[in-house]
Design goal:
The complex is a heterodimer. By secondary structure, chain A is an alpha+beta fold. Helices cover 54% and strands 8% of the residues of chain A. By secondary structure, chain B is an all-alpha fold. The chains are: A alpha+beta, B mainly alpha.
Chain lengths: 499, 179
């Protein structure tokens, strides 16, 4: 409606440019106001709240009008007036002083370089300037993440900005991690980072591909951190299960080593645990546990975006392995195998069988206050430390009373409790917690909750693009394709590799 | 230079399966570099200002048309359902480059064309330049698209990022004042 204005209202013979600019931009303003009034009328007559919003937006009409004014200006200034045209038709046009052509070319080259710089800057978050070119996601993290990437798959770039390091992991250089330099060389940060890296390397190993080229590379990554290799996956696994919770960073050897500290004779076990936290889950296990739902928006009709769970989830290799394990677990849910195993575990723990989740929960609640389910290994360590500290002091009696109440034993001496506390069979509260989490997984009343057949089936369909409904079809499909599925290009679904 | 733009684009963008859209976006600066000289070189202008303005406007209009085509055809390529998904294509990079490179290149081409026309003394043949309603409408429309492109520039993430980053504080103030 605005572009035809000069056609509808052609150039007058006698006028100056500014008058014409105001005339055209004034007509454009009329068009804008007419459109605004039309929309407001439609909205109000339909009694839609948008009508009110349109009404309130009147002051903002100045924004499109600025564009109209600019348009009118360039239109008029690019137009040769009839009077001038008739004059120049008969009279040679004087040659004004002009810029040398080589200068124009040079200026253009500079302009083009400026355009490239502006374009690249457009891809960077404001705070990072040119250092953030291509960064789609920036998040702050702790120094341990820096060491994690050092020990895991490395960084593609690192820049120090004042008191922060901006790094990009090699697994996805569109992610920028901002890490404070303060505390960077702190042994705790190094230990945490390298422990996570070792855990993530371990999770990437496919037991059936132990001798493959990729597994050899992964093993090299582990050797760099642990200082030793293993002859088979079974050997690695048994070593890992036995020692992974005891690994600490040795700044002398620059390796993760098995801690030789006697944790049952520590002055302050709590402080020690804060200093040397237990190894967390690796990314493969994270993805396995949550499935594709770690992508925010997944399953809600939205295109999923990576949730704020760290750049490691951008690691396609880990994501593929995690999702493959998730599919295998999910098929176990569809066939009922997982529920059967959960029931067996719970039956062994409670010594009974029940029909409803409420009954299972009540049974678990009943045994919660009995040993060995009430005390954790950490609590036992704290008690042992307490025994050592309160022995032969005025607090000895209260410690003894507390221990008798907590353990249900009637031993008269504090020392008698130590062997009981050190026995892992007496401190199984983690098993009770595991059992408590498993009750939901029995799916006795499946209303579409997580890790139950209805929801699992829907997720599997969306994740793989298959439309099977029966568990047998899924079992058959997985049997035929489990070695053949790969991550889709966008990294959100599993697709079958073409033969 | 347009090939450098395209190469830089393919370096910063994460195509993640959206190869068609990514390659179309990468091709836009190249297309601008081919179309605008071709357009300017067959055009007769009657003044230096007209040559500069119309050449620059045509080049900038490519950014507007490119953006519209990109948005309107998004659904044909699977659509975008989140900002994350569309941001990965780095369309802002291409639009910024088209805007600024179009402005710089278009203005220079218009000036050079004007010099050529002067040398050929075609300025004497102004009467031959078509002033038909259709041509005037086209001129007005191209200028409008270019003007609107500038208006939308303050909404473009890249421009706001540039100014927020303090790289061009003066222009930043101008843009903020306008918005």
């Amino acid at each position: 409606l605005i572009s035809p204005i000069p056609i509808v209202s052609p150039l007058p013979t006698q006028t100056n440019r500014w008058k014409l600019i105001w005339k055209y931009s004034g007509l454009a303003a009329l068009v804008i106001v007419a459109m605004w009034a039309f929309l407001a009328f439609i909205g109000i007559s339909a009694r839609h709240f948008l009508g009110l919003i349109v009404l309130l937006e009147f002051p903002f009409l100045v924004l499109p009008w600025i564009a109209c004014f600019f348009w009118a200006s360039v239109y008029v200034w690019s137009t040769r007036f009839p009077a001038a045209a008739s004059l120049s038709g008969n009279t040679p046009v004087p040659h004004p002083a002009r810029l040398a052509e080589w200068k124009i070319v040079c200026l253009t080259a500079l302009g083009q370089i400026g355009a490239l710089s502006a374009g690249l800057l457009a891809t960077a978050p404001p705070a990072l300037g040119f250092h953030g070119i291509g960064c789609l996601k920036v998040y702050s993290s702790k120094p341990s993440e820096y060491w994690f990437w050092k020990g895991y798959k490395g960084t593609s770039s690192e820049v120090t900005l004042e008191d922060r390091i901006i790094l990009r992991p090699t697994v996805d250089s569109s992610v920028c991690v901002s890490i404070p330099t303060e505390g960077m060389d702190d042994p705790q940060s190094i230990e945490r980072g390298y422990l996570s890296a070792a855990c993530s390397w371990f999770g990437l190993i496919d037991p059936e591909q132990w001798e493959s080229g990729r597994t050899r590379q992964i093993r090299k990554g582990l050797v760099r951190l642990l200082g030793r290799d293993f002859s088979s996956y079974d050997e690695l696994r048994s070593w890992w299960e036995q020692n992974s919770d005891s690994l600490v960073w040795s700044s002398e050897d620059q390796l993760l080593e098995i801690d030789k500290t006697d944790r049952w004779n520590l002055e302050n076990p709590y402080a020690y645990r804060q200093e040397h936290p237990r190894m967390g889950r690796g990314v493969v296990e994270d993805v396995r546990e949550l499935g594709p739902q770690w992508l925010s928006g997944w399953g809600y009709g939205l295109d999923p975006a990576p949730a704020d769970r760290g750049a490691v989830l951008h690691d396609r290799e880990a994501r593929l392995l995690g999702l493959r394990l998730y599919v295998a677990d999910s098929i176990g849910i569809l066939t009922g195998e997982r529920q059967r195993r959960a029931r067996e575990f719970l039956r062994n723990m409670t010594g009974s069988d029940f029909e409803t989740e409420d009954e299972w929960r009540k049974a678990l609640d009943q045994i919660r206050q009995t040993n060995p389910w009430q005390m954790s290994r950490f609590e036992a360590q704290d008690w042992v430390s307490f025994i050592h500290r309160t022995r032969n002091t005025s607090r000895e009696a209260s410690t003894l009373a507390g221990l008798q109440e907590r353990t249900g034993l009637n031993d008269p001496n504090l020392e008698d409790f130590v062997s009981w506390l050190e026995n892992p069979e007496n401190t199984r509260s983690s098993d009770w917690e595991k059992a408590s989490r498993m009750v939901g997984g029995l799916c006795l009343d499946d209303k579409g909750q997580i890790r139950c057949p209805i929801r699992t089936l829907a997720i599997l369909k969306e994740l793989t693009g298959n439309t099977f409904d029966s568990p047998q079809q899924w079992v058959q499909w997985w049997h035929d394709n489990q070695g053949n599925v790969v991550l889709s290009e966008d990294g959100r679904t599993l697709v079958t590799k073409p033969e | 230079m347009s090939l450098v733009y395209a190469a830089a684009y393919l370096h910063v963008a994460v195509l993640a399966g959206r190869y068609s859209q990514g390659h179309v976006l990468a091709a836009l600066p190249v297309l601008q570099a081919i179309l605008i000289p071709a357009y300017v070189w067959r055009k007769e202008f009657r003044s230096r200002a007209e040559a500069m303005i119309r050449s620059a406007a045509a080049a900038v209009a490519i950014a507007g048309i490119g953006e519209a085509v990109f948005l309107k055809t998004a659904a044909s390529f699977g659509g975008f359902r989140s900002y994350w998904d569309s941001n990965r294509l780095q369309a802002d990079y291409v639009l910024t480059v088209l805007l600024f490179a179009g402005l710089a290149g278009g203005t220079a081409l218009g000036t050079l064309r004007w010099h050529v026309l002067q040398r050929q003394r075609r300025v004497q043949a102004i009467a031959r330049v078509s002033d038909s309603r259709w041509n005037n409408y086209l001129r007005s429309a191209v200028l409008w698209i270019a003007s609107d492109r500038f208006r939308l520039a303050n909404r473009m993430a890249p421009v706001s990022r540039i100014f927020l980053a303090g790289q061009l504080p003066c222009l930043g103030g101008f843009i903020r004042a306008c918005s």
